[in-house]
Structure formats: C-alpha cells, structure tokens
Amino acid sequence: MDLPGHLSIQAHANRLANHRLHGAMAALGADEFHAPRTSFFPSLAATLNHLLAVDLYYIGALHGDAGIVQAYQTFQPAGTVAELAGRQAVSDQRLIDFCLSLTPEGCAAEVALDRGDHVQRDAVGHVLAHLFMHQTHHRGQAHAMLAGTAIAPPQLDEFLMPSEAHLRVAEMQALGWREEDVYRQADSTHGR
C-alpha cells in the first residue's frame, strides 16, 4: 500500500468511527450531551466540538483556505448531537475528498498553518498523521465519557483492516460505500 492509499483509508476510517459514535449518541438528550464529565474537556459536547473545530482548522489549512485562524476563533459549538453529527459529516467528507486526490508528491507538499502570530510549515503527510492522531485521541475520550451514560460505548477500531469488513457492514451500507472502493483499490487509485 502506498502512502496516499493509507491516508485515504485513514480518512474513511475517521468517517466510519464518527458515524458509529454519533449514531450511538443519537439518543442522548441535550442535558446528557452537555453534562459535566471527567476528561480534558469536561463534557461530551465540549470534547466533540473541540474535535470538530480542530478538524475544520487543519482541513482548511490542507485546502489552502484563507482565514482559518479567525474561523477557529469564532467557531460556534454544536448544541445537539444531531447538529454535531451533521457538521462533522461535512468536515469528514471534505477530508476524504482531499485524501482521495493525494499523490505521493502531494504527501510531501508543504502546508502553511497560520497560527496567528506565525506560520508553521509542515508536509501534508505529517499534518494528516497529526490530525488522525488528534481525532483518535479525543474520540477515545468521548468513548470513555459515554460509558458514564445509559448508552454502551460502540466499538470504534474496526475500520482499518480489510479483513474486518464483516464488522462494518451496517456503516458501509449507511454511507453508500463499497469495500473494494475504500480498501481494496487503495494502491491502484492513488498510484498516479
């Protein structure tokens, strides 16, 4: 598997994990979504809105969007699970689209990350690796917080290996994806 293929699978896995997590959380009322819990960000709402805000920042940087610092500073948190899920789905798809367009040369291209007081420069591949780690980190915190509700935390790590296709059938169908498009053709679709 080449690097663009791997990054595409990571972006799809991110979407699948968010889809499963948000689906499990759909039954949470606003009070439980915002209830104080033990974690770095002290509620499910705060944790998952932070995840969305950071996703929007980095995905904007990857796309070369102007005004990413201002957009991050003026981010309006989602008030409900449904609103969060909808906004995260749009962000996730934008990340997938970016990764599907990657070439090996594109993975090495420079990304300018406007930090307000300076511009940080890193390679696309490094920025994506950081973003995927950040997503997994905070989704794990939300997963742990969900254990303190009446909702059983869903399995979130069945989305990277082609051999585990039987564990993600419902999510793949819900998103209209086919295994061969996401996993088995990663090498041929990115080796341009």
Could you give the topology of this structure?
Layout: H1 3-25, H2 30-34, H3 44-63, H4 68-73, H5 81-100, H6 104-108, E1 110-114, E2 119-123, H7 124-146, H8 169-175, H9 179-184, H10 186-190
Antiparallel strand pairs: 1-2
Helix pairs in contact: 1-5, 1-7, 3-5, 3-7
Structural features, described:
It contains 10 helices and 2 strands, in the order ααααααββαααα. With 192 residues, the chain is mostly helical. β1 (110-114) and β2 (119-123) form a beta hairpin. α3 runs antiparallel to α7. A two-stranded antiparallel sheet has the order 1-2. The model has no long low-confidence stretch (mean pLDDT 92). The protein has helices spanning 3-25, 30-34, 44-63, 68-73, 81-100, 104-108, 124-146, 169-175, 179-184, 186-190, and strands spanning 110-114, 119-123. The protein has one domain (3-190): Four Helix Bundle (Hemerythrin (Met), subunit A).
The value of Rg in angstroms is: 17 Å
Question: What form results from the Cα inertia axes?
Answer: globular
CATH topology: Four Helix Bundle (Hemerythrin (Met), subunit A)
Total separate domains? 1
> Could you give a short account of the major beta sheet?
2 strands, antiparallel
Distance between the termini: 13 Å
Query: Helical segment tally?
Result: 10
| pLDDT averaged residue by residue | 92
Keywords: Metal-binding
Family: Belongs to the DinB family.
InterPro entries: DinB (IPR007837), DinB/YfiT-like (IPR034660)
Protein name: DinB family protein
